[in-house]
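Re: the multi-chain job from yesterday

Posting the exact lines I submitted so nobody has to dig through the queue logs.
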Amino acid sequence: MSKFNDIDRLCISTVRLLAVDAVQKANSGHPGAPLGLAPAMHVLCRDFMNVNHENVDWPNRDRFVLSNGHACALLYSTLHLLGYDYTIDDLKRFRSVGSKTPGHPEYELPGVELTTGPLGQGISNAVGFAIAQAHIAARYNKKDCEISTNYTYVFAGDGCMQEGVSSEACSLAGHLQLGNLIVIYDDNSITIDGKTNLSFTEEVAVRYRGYGWEVIEVKDGNDNLDAISQAIKLAKSNKKQPTLIKLTTTIGFGSLNEGTYNVHGSPLKPDDVKQLKKRFGFNSEESFVVPQEVYDFYKEHMIERGKKANEEWNSTLEEYMRKYPELGAELKRRIAGILPPDWESALPTFKPEDGDLATRKLSASVINSLAKTLPELIGGSADLTPSNLTRWDDAIDFQPDDTKIGSYMGRYIRYGVREHGMSAILNGISAYGYNLKPFGGTFLNFVSYASGAVRLAALSGYPVIWVATHDSIGLGEDGPTHQPIETVTHFRALPNMQVWRPADGNEVSAAYKVSIESKATPSIICLTRQNVPQLEGSSIEKAAKGGYAISEYHGNTTPKLDLILVSSGSEVSLCCKSAEKYSKDHKVNIRVVSLPDFYTFGKQPFEYRISVLPDEVPILSVEVYATLSMCKYSHEQFGLDRFGMSGKSKEVYEYFEFTPDGVASRIAKVLSFYSDKTIRSPVRKALA
Amino acid sequence: MSKFNDIDRLCISTVRLLAVDAVQKANSGHPGAPLGLAPAMHVLCRDFMNVNHENVDWPNRDRFVLSNGHACALLYSTLHLLGYDYTIDDLKRFRSVGSKTPGHPEYELPGVELTTGPLGQGISNAVGFAIAQAHIAARYNKKDCEISTNYTYVFAGDGCMQEGVSSEACSLAGHLQLGNLIVIYDDNSITIDGKTNLSFTEEVAVRYRGYGWEVIEVKDGNDNLDAISQAIKLAKSNKKQPTLIKLTTTIGFGSLNEGTYNVHGSPLKPDDVKQLKKRFGFNSEESFVVPQEVYDFYKEHMIERGKKANEEWNSTLEEYMRKYPELGAELKRRIAGILPPDWESALPTFKPEDGDLATRKLSASVINSLAKTLPELIGGSADLTPSNLTRWDDAIDFQPDDTKIGSYMGRYIRYGVREHGMSAILNGISAYGYNLKPFGGTFLNFVSYASGAVRLAALSGYPVIWVATHDSIGLGEDGPTHQPIETVTHFRALPNMQVWRPADGNEVSAAYKVSIESKATPSIICLTRQNVPQLEGSSIEKAAKGGYAISEYHGNTTPKLDLILVSSGSEVSLCCKSAEKYSKDHKVNIRVVSLPDFYTFGKQPFEYRISVLPDEVPILSVEVYATLSMCKYSHEQFGLDRFGMSGKSKEVYEYFEFTPDGVASRIAKVLSFYSDKTIRSPVRKALA
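And the result, structure tokens for all chains:
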């Protein structure tokens, strides 16, 4: 006998119609997936999800990820019933400017765990949730006191299954045996272009079994609530494999156009809405209707259960604090999102006599220090560990115990050659909570593979870190396929993104300092393969401003500056060397400005910025990159508006004239050109 | 009895040692994969590959793709033996500046079909090769005259299997039943981090079977030449499925460190090289040795066979020209890479009275015209056909015949939700030849998902086209997850990349004109979802310069310009409207400059550029994008250095003040600020 009855069907119809009404009112949106997935959503909430709208950040809540984010009318409607801060009026303002119900779910909204919509991301973020949960459980759970027990549930559609980012993340999830991850795949055979037989005839179940997942097929996802519930229960009981529940549904269930792409992404016809309401037993003339018994049912069954679970967890936490005061204090600190006192004293500082070192090696020193100080640091690399130098000395790999090559206690993740999957996972780990500070390594050029996830980190404000080594032609022999040219400009243009390119050890420490302290801005830290000197004039404090005058070379006795060289990373020392020689040879005064991060420099007050880049001095930028972004902070640019070359680092620099002589010839041209011209600082602007 | 004997083993040893010597000489590179894959390479060349070093572009040559491009020492060594223009001295200059043997294979080199190295790309490009071959065969082959019969062979490693881009492309390849595609997967269980058990324990064979591929396992790829040959033969006989040959090899075979990650990416120790040479029967004191019998064997068996096949094909082509003169003429034209005469007369032109239309709709008109005129146009979309409007009226889908929903004759490809896979496939189609002009549609924001492939298009010079609709906040309700902000700056910074953002119908035609004519530069054409007016002052000819003064508004009778508004796409009409009103209200003279493509504008002579953006006039840019790139061509920027918002297009523009009033308030500030200042054109520079 079914445990579901009329009230369940009424709840489902209510959610379906709320979603449809929201789309109609907005005259925009996606009714199809909500109509198809409302039964699964109801069953998930009724029987499994423990959440608490009064404490939305309760650390042990179950996580729900709507990877097919365009179905958000379903999510907002359900969150409304679950007591979250969404009124019926909010639902009526769906997809309108400034509303709490935008066209895709956004991280900062109550009950929304992740920003989703770009397909493939949510399910991949969810792998990050599952990793984070497994790790927190391994670190803190005690047999008599289980702190972390939550599951991560995902809804995903055909699009999410087709995107490569999810292939990467799900392959890794299978490898990592993440039994706490349950994906409900809305197998409705429809995408925007039409039937999936146009482009997507692979056997998804076979593929996921190949990844090492358990796959459960539920054929009648429109009706068979018991089967859905059974499947989720079975999935939960499998502690060694993530589960894909392949749920066959009808897109736009109940609509006259059900089962076609017409119901995917635009409102239904008014007549269709009427018959739909009638069919579900609602008054076809009314909109946004929630029967009181639906509110009551959600309150009694879901809201109360969630609140109770939260209360029990609070007691568990108290008990934990008593029994395990040391770990308990760490846990409490992390839940509060506070770094340990004096953590930054772990950051190394450097003097010129420390000699030449690659900034990737300097980064390795920082990581080694921080890993000891910050238990929340959780790192990894997309199969470039020996190149990125991201693994600290006594790191334990994050691996299932039975592999004997690590444990879930471990904090070093072997991501495989999966930059995009890694990056989406970083986002998930960060969003999971417990002050987790994830970083992932790859070559700077291949951060671009992860653009989709990097963008979502910036948009959502997940303060993750990419350790991006081999940051220029300085990587040498691997050649132009591996040498970034446009990459830094790309990410400098991304709002809410730090792009650090430290010039030496102190600047590396500064980059990590600001990145680790960041609450809502991600960072890419660009690091050299090749050695650079430790510079006179650098300091953590100065570099932490994002830009500063690192040194001045006076070839004459007047205080007047003749030229500023502005640069970043490995070219700062080149500028210093060039300026030193040129100023002496030509009796001019040259300042070198190091600009390790545009974002941070841009946040400094105008007075500071103009003091670094004053009026009346020509500014020449030097970076072995596309010159486009340096147009913002210089009058003239010496750069590389072409692809690089395979060869020894030094020879490639010489080939492109990034040498003291090459810089000198540009300085001469710039000085001559500007000698009779009025010059305004690029930071002095009419529009702030 | 084996058909292979001592000479085969000698050939293999020779290639192995050439590759090792090249890496040793360079003191940089990857010996492991060449040592493991040399047997497969030899068997492939000996028994299957038909190529002709004297006619490297022979259209019906078999295609070889080294997807694990870091193994290029293997490729260069083999090309040397195959008679291609690589001397032993070239091999000695491996990975050095200006050499013909760079650190990863580059498209322009003889015998190198594709630029590879960034993992996952080559195998995905190869899907494009296979699609292109199937299409050319379907279009031109006659029962008595087969023009196109070649196969595409790919070597790929674990990295290529892990990357999501290959998952996307290979899923589609299975759907498309591409029997002409044969991938040899070097299953050596080692990646840079160590054993694949660190991160990659999925069953690749199961996954590929799920994609619909045939999978053949060859366990002893180090020795069993017969098994390799049999497997490839079997793969060739399967006309309905692509084949993955899972070839177990030992990375660094023969080295003292064989089977470990130590042999992956750095030279062997000198002693190791010595023992290796001894082991393979070579003098351990000599380097770069090719026994004469090896040259002879390659000449007799491979070079001669390839030449003969080419000659036979030439005869077939002659016969074809006689029997099928019309198709034959088209074929000949396409092989020569020449567009049909007067093709550009198919491009529509527009007048203001044609009214408001979305540029994506204007693009649809162009595509409709061009599809009739250009049989080489081969389009598609990553499951956004009804949004991108990329499918012309009588298009036939590229599908296997037995699906009954298209045919290989078709020129419209349903890529599924696979932007990166699609883009890599576009690159492959373009590189295949026959003047194929591939385009692929997606939202501009999701071209970023494909950054890895876009970059390789620019680096290699594949003139492909991305039809990138929904190009700004103007897409409205879908909100910030879908609204590009940084995207255009990213691609403007990419060398050799056109980024068109046309303002109206004439500019759309211009964008296609320049993109279709391009021989070695790819294009992204950014198009609006929302309507824009047809502008007075636009023309194909003017827009084809990349930037021009589209109109001037004189509020007083002097010729002196007070301000220039520079803009692109949908903001050009906003600028015109704003300038018209402001100039009248304030009696000033304002020029509006439309800058549809930075790349093309940047190629114009200085005199032209300075005439468009003259000295002594303040220039204000207006784009609903990150302002970074407009710093290149303006003094002041009005843009969007934050993420967008979900809401109706018009309301979102209003929210961010992209209205005539909003522009006017910026104009006022700029005029006031610059009233007492000397102004230099941003195109007047000391450094060209």
